[in-house]
Design goal:
CATH architecture of the largest domain: Alpha-Beta Barrel
Number of strands: 22
Strand content: 15-25%
CATH superfamily of the largest domain: Phosphoenolpyruvate-binding domains
Radius of gyration: 29 Å
Largest sheet: 8 strands, mixed
Helix content: 40-55%
Shape: globular
Number of helices: 26
Bound molecules: phosphoenolpyruvate, magnesium ion
Structural class: alpha/beta
Oligomer: single chain
Distance between the termini: 54 Å
Length: 754
Amino acid sequence: MLEPLRRIIQSVNKAASLEDAVDIIVSEVKKAVAADACSVYLTDADSREHLLQATDGLYAEAVGQVRLPLHRGLIGWVAERAEVVNLDDANHHPRYLYVEQTGEERFRAFLGVPIIQNRKVLGVLVLRQHDACRFSDDTVTFVMTLAAQLAAAIVLARNTGELDRLRRHDGLSNRYLVGLAASPGIAFGTAYVVFASADLDAVPDKPVQDIEADIAAFRSALAEVADDISGLAERVGGSLREEDRALFDAWRLMLQSESLVDDTITRIRAGNWVQGALRETIAEHIALFDRMDDDYLRERASDVRDLGRQVLMRLQKLDVPEAHYPPSTVLIGDEISAMQIADVPRESLAGIVSSGGSNSSHIAILARGMGVPAAMGVAEYRVSQIEGQELIVDGYRGRVYVAPSVVIRDEYDRLAADDRELSEELNALRGLPSETTDGHKLRLYLNTGLVSEQRPLGIEESSGVGLYRTELPFLVRDRFPGENTQMQIYQQVLENFMPRPVTIRTLDIGGDKPLNYFPVEESNPFLGWRGIRLTRDHPELFITQVRAILRAAIGLDNLRLLLPMITTVDEVDDALLLIQRAADELEDEGHDIAMPPVGVMIEVPAAVYQADALARRVSFMSVGTNDLTQYLLAVDRNNPHVATLYDDLHPAVLRALMSVVAGARVYGREVSVCGEMAGNPLAAPLLLGIGVDSLSMGVGSLLPVKGVIRSISRARARELLRVALQCETGLEVRRVLTDALDEIGLGGLVRPGR
Ligand code: PEP
Ligand code: MG
């Protein structure tokens, strides 16, 4: 049964319209299970009816004519119960509703299977048999399996048909495509579809003819791409913020990386021609990043892929077609790269819509940094249909309106005017202290390390770096980076932020961030060998990193060390001994080492319950709410199927945070929050009320969070916390907080309008 299942899904996926899709479904399913009739009813929630959309076996004239009331008949019964109904003789069932137009009186057996997406019934697939007999278990499970997969294809086909009609009739619409809210704001613009011009996957392997000539061609292609990047950096650099410009440096580093250059040359020498060798090298890198569950690191794969394409284009001597971007460009594509974003003049870039990616993907982080509204994971349409269409992107809700109606446009014009007013108010906060109306200071720090920062990021607005993630240099190489290499990297960030403190986290590798040169087979990587667990078992790695960090800080005096994934006090004791050993070694070698404050990350429930025991051992604690939420709620933070369950405002997370602060206070330790929650303006009053001492966040969140802090008193924050703690769901907490932001006139930070 697997083959017909796959074939049907594939044909439906290719259908040009909803009508085509359901026609394929009814005829193919009828054939596959040898039924006498197969029909699809689609549910229209607005008119509260089920419409007969297609049939093979009932009277064809009934299609598009028969409309059954939402809760009537067997179709209504299947839909309202959202369950399979298998009857040997439908005509005697109390819910049976005779409909003359269909000719159903000829049939007796009935099988109704709901078509469901995201818990919503989209329609009902019905099989009929002339004889009175129950459908076999095999048939039932086949149709259920099929229906479960058809829902997404039906939505895609419906949108494809609608967009096509829009294009042909120039119509206007109130409907929108649904995605994930990735970067707040509202964009109006013209769709500009981006796609890859050089196709790496299409490059075949061929024997190399002239090894040296191929190597020379490869080197000159690399040099040309490096020149392109420099040109681009010069052209758009001025209009980008410091932090966005750092991306160019990351690309340059990648282009020069040993793993890209040497691996390709080795492959050429081994006999593959230059294009094939490049494809192999790039594929290997992409596979490494693709395997990562962590969204933002997985996004590095698109950078590698994009650089690979650029080099290939040079090798193939394809000219980069000159892009003519509309004055308000909404970049849209299946997979948009950072390079493609940077190619659009900043003043023309209005919005970004991507079929792939998620809220924490690299492109989303870049869009937030640039202040460009973005929606990710908008997959229910075909990119090819959208070029040149007028779009509105609602980055607060992840909605994309195609050819919007006048009503929608007017509404969004009004909301955008409110947004502009709010952002002017926020800009006026630059340089002002992060302080409540009753004078309580809450320090704001930056999270960095995502790209190789060559320049200081958002220094003026932050108190320093609250979380420097050190994984990147380990991920982009083909072996562990040596002590000196690491030292240079750490030194740069410490110097950039001097005298502000920089909290460097030791390696949090493993689990969702595997190294290709250190493979670990695990059936449950998130519960496996990651963070401190791995480095504790490999003291040589830990000591090398700590030596590099301590050496980097010599003479700067602004280092703080942070240990990730702490679950037991033994891990801390061991790590502290190793840190002391590294410092002693360096002293013996004649270095003048200052011991930095050492802190632990609280991201495992066990650490919450032992916060006091941990606090006794260290100088500070930093709560990683991304992992803590995932482990408390048992929800994989990167899995789209459970994305709606992942909620860092869940009451359990709030209670955990309170326990951490209480535990830390026993020994007078400071508590910071460095997960994504810290950058959410909605969460700021709660974190203030809970009594955390500082927040660490992406650069784009600094002003919005500061805006909230400066508009609220600590007493009010505590009152809000008290109310939030009475809530039993994350949704209720969210409501309380949204109302609170509205009260201080900042509701516009988390939704369109004021
Ligand atoms: C966290 O878990 O909240 C955190 C800050 O660490 P990371 O996102 O790097 O796992
Ligand atoms: Mg973490």
